[in-house]
Design a protein that fits this description.
Helix content: 25-40%
Order of helices and strands: HHHEHEEEHEHHEHEHEHHEEEHEHEEEEE
Shape: globular
Number of strands: 17
Distance between the termini: 26 Å
Strand content: 15-25%
Number of helices: 13
């Protein structure tokens, strides 16, 4: 969700009342329905991310018909690019005057589905950075909740905002206010992952939530773009994150898993990691067997096969860079929600064949410039001396040059 998205893409009570009335008036003026669809929490927990404005948005109705999916995580709500404390889509389209996303939501609800909306993400300026305090931040988000009659919302707190302690305090405070003022609102908090579960800033965010007495439906981590390679590394991070939740909040293991979520990236990640359908199945099995609260991924815009299937070893915002049929990855969210997806024809284009001839990369080995290794189904060449630097973990500017699939 990270570099790719950046490139591509009381006072509290009074403030909320004002924002709510203004959004309600805007909603009525636009002719939005007064009756929002409400699904069970399991569906909101299974909603994959969809960008309605960027990355060649797919037709949500077609995905619903093909997979049985009912819930979508629409992204992202940001502060205006020019500054200010009012919600926009992607920093450019004011929520107050929106009709385009509203039409997408109406179409989804007409087919029996619903949406959650995600705020934040990797790119752009977040409202927690520009609003004056938690109450003002909450008032901005309340406009979104009221206009679209939301039953669920996601706080995607990651770089660079989560390095700003004041901004994170406002975001967590806003989430708590929204939770209190919108009974039954499903709230997820998504943040970056490391092999140890989450890093220093993620732990500080959890400490802030504890200090404010805020408990969302789940804290989700994104185990990709951090040297992960396949499902084993992801489930290990989820296990470690469970320990962090236990030590932070004093929960037992089962309670921590009941408040834990997974947010993956389908296909090729920003840093050249690969997560296939088999990896998603393994993580899904882990999530369901441990009774985790959430299973989602970035993104439906990417849940399509590239041409060629491996996209010449590049990451795309509009396709996965692995061999697949359309919406293969969405079906894992459907399974998490407890539904059996309809069957489809298998991919007509097989995965790339062949094997790697270079020696497998080793974290303990020393490599000099020009040495080649194999890692993640690709051949990599060292640009200079290195040891214990995972191929692809530092992107195109790092020590390893990606020579493409074996």
């Amino acid at each position: 969700m990270k570099r790719l998205r950046a490139l591509l893409s009381g006072v509290a009570t009074a403030a909320l009342a004002t924002a709510g009335l203004a959004a309600f008036a805007a909603q009525q003026a636009s002719g939005a329905s007064a009756d929002a669809t409400a699904l069970g929490n399991r569906w909101y927990a299974a909603a994959p991310y969809l960008m309605p404005h960027d990355n060649n948005p797919p037709d949500a109705g077609a995905i619903m018909d093909a997979t049985g999916l009912k819930a979508f995580q629409l992204a992202f709500i940001l502060a205006p690019n020019g500054g200010g404390c009012s919600p926009t889509w992607d920093g450019t389209s004011p929520v107050s005057s929106d009709t385009a996303v509203g039409s997408v939501i109406s179409a989804i609800r007409a087919k029996g589905g619903d949406v959650s909306v995600s705020i934040g993400g990797y790119g752009g300026t977040k409202l927690g950075q520009t609003c004056s305090d938690a109450a003002a931040t909450a008032a901005a988000y309340q406009q979104v909740i009221t206009k679209y009659q939301l039953k669920a919302i996601d706080f995607d707190l990651e770089e660079p905002e989560y390095e700003n302690t004041a901004a994170i305090a406002r975001e967590i405070g806003a989430a708590k206010i929204l939770q209190q003022n919108n009974p039954g609102l499903y709230v997820s908090v998504t943040t970056a992952a490391t092999a140890d579960g989450t890093g220093w800033f993620g732990k500080q965010m959890l400490n802030e939530a504890k200090a404010q007495g805020f408990t969302p439906n789940n804290f989700s981590i994104m185990p990709f773009d951090g040297g992960f390679n396949g499902a084993a590394a992801q489930t290990s991070a989820l296990t470690n994150f469970n320990s962090i939740l236990r030590s932070t909040f004093g929960w037992d293991e089962a309670t921590a898993y009941a408040h834990e979520g997974f947010s993956g990236m389908n296909g090729r990640s920003d840093t050249g990691e690969y997560f296939t359908q088999a990896d998603f199945q393994t993580v899904l099995d882990f999530a369901t067997s441990h009774h985790m609260d959430r299973f989602t991924f970035w993104s439906l815009n990417r849940d399509r096969q590239c041409t060629p299937p491996d996209n010449n070893g590049k990451t795309s915002g509009t396709c996965s860079s692995v061999a697949q049929s359309d919406w293969d990855f969405a079906k894992y969210s459907v399974k998490f929600a407890g539904v059996t997806p309809p069957t489809t024809t298998p991919p007509t284009t097989p995965p790339p064949t062949g094997s790697c001839t270079a020696a497998a990369w080793s974290s303990s080995a020393v490599y000099t410039g020009g040495t080649t290794v194999s890692y993640g189904g690709h051949t990599w060449k060292a640009k200079w001396w290195t040891q214990n630097e995972t191929p692809g973990s530092t992107g195109e500017w790092g020590v390893w040059q990606d020579l493409g699939p074996c």
